[in-house]
Amino acid sequence: MRSSAALRIIVDENIPAAVECFSQFGEVQQVSGRELSRADIGAAEVLVVRSVTKVNEALLAGTGVRFVGSTTIGTDHLDLNYLAANEIKVCNAPGSNAESVVDYVISAICSCGNLLDRLLSGEPVGIVGYGNVGRRLGRRLSALGIAWRAYDPLLDQATEGLSSLEEVIGSSFVCLHAPLTRDGLYPSYHMLGLDQLGAMPANAVLLNAGRGEVVATEVLLSLCEQRPDISLVLDVWEGEPCFPANLASRCRIATPHIAGYSADGKLTGLRMVASELAAFLNLSLLPFAVPSSMADSAEIACDGANELDFIKNAVAAVYDVMEDDKRFRGIIGSSNRGQAFDLLRKHYPVRRELAYSALASTNPKFSAVLQALQSGR
Ligand SMILES: NC(=O)c1ccc[n+]([C@@H]2O[C@H](COP(=O)([O-])OP(=O)(O)OC[C@H]3O[C@@H](n4cnc5c(N)ncnc54)[C@H](O)[C@@H]3O)[C@@H](O)[C@H]2O)c1
Ligand SMILES: O=C(O)[C@H](O)[C@H](O)COP(=O)(O)O
Q1: Which residue ranges does the record assign to the D-isomer specific 2-hydroxyacid dehydrogenase catalytic domain (predicted)?
Q2: Which of 76, 111, 132, 226 has the fewest C-beta atoms under 10 angstroms from its C-beta?
């Protein structure tokens, strides 16, 4: 331990390698992030959380916490105004698991009937929220030769690729990657209603991997009633962890908020927060033990009868979203869905990102498409 050995640090027990990493700064205590209360904080000065911990006055008032790090991209669980007003340093991990979300979207494309075929034939993708995830998704789609357009009202509208909301919603495959916001000029809370989503083209697919609250559950249920041709791919839910079972059972693909759960993304998030803490303490970040599951994988050889087949085989060899869907379907009828949802997330298998996997094409004619699939990072 270093000069700050007396520092008391609370970390969520579900952040892999957090104890190894943060022990270099002080004494680390693991807690259940979902249940963390003010009484548990005791004398801690540093709090390292995930998206399941609401960090606000109710949690922090009267405590000695002066640094809050969230190993997540999203910040909607952090009361940033309260933290700023109380001079508590706060950081998150922008972009850390964005490539993992893109892998999820690509795997979903491969798993929704003939969607991949339709997109490769020129039907466009619509992206709502053109930030770290949206941009990386656009880049990967372009590399694969798939057309896309994005809606992001907070960016300079001259940004290449941006379009109107109507045009984006008019795409065959619409992906929601907006953060959850409740104020400002364009709050995303319940931002899409039945009028807008009902205008999606025939046989369209709607994917939400942003936050569940961006579309009301009731709107999605009505959409299922009125437009049974539309398929839903949902990774995020209103009121997590207690997801609506009636909506889950109507989805084409349903998963428990794991789009960003690659091992690579989690480790990047941890490193980003640890670097911020090191800077805050005027220390340098020492190397820490990385889990052995992060070692380079053995080569995965891929082939296919044609490009479409090759893409599906290569993606499924690294990450098959239908495995997550299968596990999730197993808990839809559970008597304690919230707990079951959290357990699926807690015991999530090690998943590597496409870009970090040792994929190899046994057929030289697919080398370029393999490169496109692995173009993340
Ligand atoms: N499902 C998952 O596992 C998972 C993983 C990572 C991130 N996320 C969620 O995805 C969100 C986006 O991630 P990111 O890395 O791209 O974040 P980001 O902050 O880099 O980008 C978000 C973009 O959305 C735009 N935006 C804000 N309000 C909008 C609105 N009303 N309509 C359209 N666009 C709007 C912003 O201008 C910004 O460009 C995160 O905030 C998080 O909530 C989910
Ligand atoms: O905002 C994010 O980074 C993602 O939603 C992230 O995957 C959430 O995971 P959690 O913090 O709940 O483990």
Answers
A1: 15-282
A2: 226
